[in-house]
Design a protein that fits this description.
The chain has about 375 residues and is of the alpha+beta class. It is about 15% helix and about 35% strand.
Length: about 375
């Protein structure tokens, strides 16, 4: 009987070992897997190929690349960065990294979901008490950026996806772009629930000075500043203060910054601020910065000043502005006939994101007369 019991215990011990040893080995293997600890968005340009975190100002006609860098905790207790780039800089310091665009384990799949961070509203009037709601930032999925650590493209504007902002607009290769990425590690490409996931900082952190942001300049006829390109893709609001109030303070209670400060930080634009940046690079014009050139009748074709059509090069130039009931229109170029007319190219921002279009499209409804002015004589 004792030998029978001994045999049963031996069989039981063998069965336990057959289960416990593989389980222990599996747990040991799982414990040594890389762990996704952090996601940082980095960017590089054609004239600065080092991929860096933070804000980047990009001159006109310079290519941009966007990537996600991953910080991994390894099984031996060390950490390692992974990114699909040759040179990587995190928070101002060059870091050694694994240069690859996939997860470093063959039995795991890496999935990247790219987003833009944009204003929830496109424009209108901005009154005290409404700034925080109307300028709230949220994420928008950007499928054109692909699913890899190296983005396939610079993202489009997405807060206007369900709205037609106009068919007569010229595409401008500029704008301010804020980015967000979520990275998942899955056992299979079609797995619904990932084994691991992490994300870069989201909309709650957009006010941070190092939030991943691209400020893209755009080329315009001189003397219009290329930096005005950075205002494209931003919402266009007209600040409406309380009676006897300062228009520049309408955003202070809700967002803690003046309207001009938010323009300088590239969160919003207005018609006047857009023109000021186009002419000076700053969100506000100094008093007396513009020379008045007279009233222009808009109810004639072509428009006239003192009963005479205006000629490009003599009467009007690129960078001249027309103002009408609070709207500022920046003149850019003639359509080829030498006269200022409704088919000429202009830029403006009136209760909507900035646009380049024709004078005909830019004019407010019922426009009859506008004041012509020039910066710097």
């Amino acid at each position: 009987m004792a030998s029978d019991n001994r045999l049963l215990w031996i069989v039981f011990a063998v069965l336990v070992a057959l289960i416990a040893v593989p389980l222990a080995l599996w747990r040991l293997g799982e414990a040594r897997r890389p762990v996704l600890e952090e996601v940082r968005i980095v960017t590089a340009t054609g004239d600065d190929p080092v991929f860096r975190t933070g804000v980047r100002q990009v001159p006109p006609d310079v290519g941009v690349e966007i990537a996600a860098a991953l910080r991994l905790a390894l099984g031996d207790g060390s950490e390692q960065w992974l990114a699909p780039v040759a040179e990587l800089e995190i928070d101002g310091e060059r870091v050694a990294h694994i240069e690859r665009g996939d997860w470093p384990e063959e039995d795991r799949e890496l999935r990247v979901f790219w987003f833009t961070v944009e204003s929830a509203f496109l424009g209108g009037d901005l009154e005290p008490g409404e700034a925080a709601r109307l300028l709230e930032q949220r994420t928008y999925l950007a499928p054109e950026m692909g699913r890899g650590l190296l983005a396939a493209a610079v993202p489009e504007q997405h807060n206007d996806d369900q709205i037609n902002l106009g068919d007569a607009l010229e595409k401008v290769a500029g704008g301010t772009i804020r980015l967000y990425a979520r990275v998942e590690v899955a056992e299979r490409a079609d797995a619904v629930v990932p084994a691991q996931s992490a994300a870069s900082r989201g909309p709650e952190a957009v006010a941070a000075p190092d939030y991943p942001t691209l400020h893209l300049g755009a080329a315009f006829p001189a003397p219009v500043r290329a930096v005005v390109g950075e205002l494209f893709r931003l919402p266009g609001f007209e600040p409406r203060p309380a009676p006897d109030g300062d228009w520049n303070l309408v955003t202070v209670d809700g967002l803690g910054s003046t309207f001009s400060e938010l323009v300088e930080r590239r969160f919003v634009a207005s018609s006047a601020a857009f023109a000021a940046v186009a002419l000076t690079g700053s969100a506000e014009l100094e008093p007396g910065a513009l020379d008045a050139l007279g009233a222009v009748a808009l109810n004639t074709e072509p428009p006239e000043r003192s009963g005479r059509a205006l000629r490009w090069g003599d009467d009007v130039r690129p960078g001249d502005v027309l103002t009408d009931r609070g709207q500022w229109i920046v003149l850019l170029a003639d359509d080829g006939d030498g006269l200022l007319d409704r088919s000429d190219r202009v830029a403006t921002c009136w209760r909507r994101p900035p646009m380049v279009t024709t004078l005909e499209v830019a004019l407010r409804e019922g426009a009859v007369v506008a004041e012509l002015a020039r910066h710097g004589g």
